[in-house]
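Recap from last week: sequence in, structure out.
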Amino acid sequence: MPDLKTAVIYYSATGSVHALAQAAAQSAEHAGSEVRLRKVRELAPEEAIASNQGWATHAQQTQDLPEASLDDLEWADLLVFGSPTRFGLPAAQLKQFLDTAGPLWGAGKLVNKVATSFTSAATAHGGQETTITAINNVFYHWGCILVPPGYADPIQFQAGNPYGTSHVSDNGQVPPGQVELDAIAFQARRAVEIARAVKTGLASA
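Predicted structure tokens:
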């Protein structure tokens, strides 16, 4: 049986972050973790979604994917969060979910969980690093242990973002390529390794 539990929780409009989330989930599973892949609830009105073909198509394709709940946060040893950038910040959909975690935070149930994050932006300087660090600000409040990918693997010298995996989608027209998929796979694998070490260490303390 897997000795570690990982929740990959994300928001994606046109599918880029979803593709990265899937790759993260697969990598965590291959590293021996039990995984829950969860999307957060959509907040945008149907008219807005319908006005963008890529957004509408992705919403239809992922309509049966389970939505994230607070139980997923409490269940997991490792939290992997992904969001597209919105003016250098995570999307409101993910932020709204994070904001509901107050009861778990207040009860100390998020302390010592390992956490890592990733993103996608429409343009090369669309706020990838600030989006990741904005998500990470939540982890500081929760008392989590942050695990960035750094440059701890050769793929990072190609991907180039030590804060977390990021992708440039060219306004949703370009899906993540092999470099980005390999980068998020490494990030998830590294996070599983660290989370397992933390869990083992705490259990024997």
